[in-house]
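WARN no homologs supplied; continuing
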Amino acid sequence: MSNISNEDDVYSTQGNSPLSGLSGAYKPFSSPYLNYDPGYIPQTQPEFIFLDGASKQRGRFELAFGQIGGSCMIGAGIGGATGFYNGLKATTLAGQTGKLRRTQLLNHIMKKGSATANTFGSIAVIYSAFGVILSWARGTDDDLNTIVAATGCGLLYKSSAGLKKCGLGGAVGLGVSLLYTFWNNRDKLTAIRSFNPA
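OK structure emitted
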């Protein structure tokens, strides 16, 4: 017979576990290869391994891939919905039905969806390129990089449409980046507004 007491038995059905009242339930397993109980380690968030001296957040270059892909998918969704609406209206006015109408609808969806996805993707690539270059040149990643990258993106994207359109594109990029920066720092702005030096 074993001399192990019930207190040392990790598989005992007794204990403070919420499952201890159920038949066949056991205590949380303690590893025999570790000198501590893994149950004491909080598992509230995933743990990541970083290189010594590396930043503990993803940089512009890592985020660029997700931004570009997400922009393409959003553009495809918006363009597809717009193409479906335009195709539905055009085929209704033309009195088309059956297979001909379905073919025309698909043509509208694919054409508009791919065009919008291309536009959104191009903007994301230009913005990400500016952001990566600024982060590398300045050695930091802050809100100034976001504002300058968005403004430069708008200027470059509309640079072939004339000086007026180029300036308008830069103004749109500046406005969108400022709104994003204010929204991203809304807690700091609230703290500044509520600060009372008296």
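Residues 9-15 have pLDDT under 50 and may be disordered.
OK
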